[in-house]
């Protein structure tokens, strides 16, 4: 079933997602805070909106794909925001990665205007967005999840309703925790292997075929081998996400020893100027601590 969709945020992730929706037959009106991002959407048959109001006023579904809570709040609230102009009964799907409490508050304020909300953050990075194979973890009402399935099916391969409002963001925080610790472990293994005189390429081949293998090791293998930190997901964004993990863990009383250490290491990388590098650049920090410049 085709829908009219207002898509807010045509950045690294949002741009290919909006394109997939247009190619799937949905009518997509895209808006971005900065100019020059709508070309691929227009080429796919979508439309560029001049304002949030224009993007959302006739939409069945409004999707936001933005960096953090402040940006989601900026486009959602106020006289020029989504809630002021989306029609009652519309479904707002926030696919950004933000704090669970922000999602819950957005749901409360949207309900006052008769607008339904799902939090639906994604995993899979830029490559997953481009290939349309994202994992989508959804919080909200089951009926709204079913209504959104045609949208989700155009964007992802693994789509799961995880629970009530805010739970999608909680699951995404857990995803980022696992990813961060795994990246750090891989980075440490790389330095350990190279300083031991082991052929790194051969070692990663055999490790990838055993229980130590992971999607992280497979996807970031060439980053580690080549020291190529062209970003598919930046260290700065992962640092933001680990802040969400830490704050949420504190709120629920969960102690995360490895998560806390890894969050500090990611924060250290950002402080050293690595915010715009791929998060596999955690390897640079291990090299620094080991007095080692790599190959």
What does this entry look like structurally?
By secondary structure, this protein is an alpha/beta fold. It has helices at residues 14-23, 39-43, 52-56, 69-76, 82-85, 100-111, 125-131, 142-153, 167-195, 200-208, 215-226, 235-252, 257-271, 282-289, and strands at residues 4-8, 27-31, 47-48, 61-64, 91-94, 116-119, 122-123, 134-139, 156-163. It has a 6-stranded parallel β-sheet with strand order 3-2-1-4-5-6, sandwiched between helices. A 3-stranded mixed β-sheet has the order 7-8-9. Helix 9 crosses helix 14 (282-289) and helix 10 (200-208) packs antiparallel against helix 11.
Based on the model shown, name its key terms:
295 residues, single chain, alpha/beta, 14 helices, 3-stranded mixed β-sheet
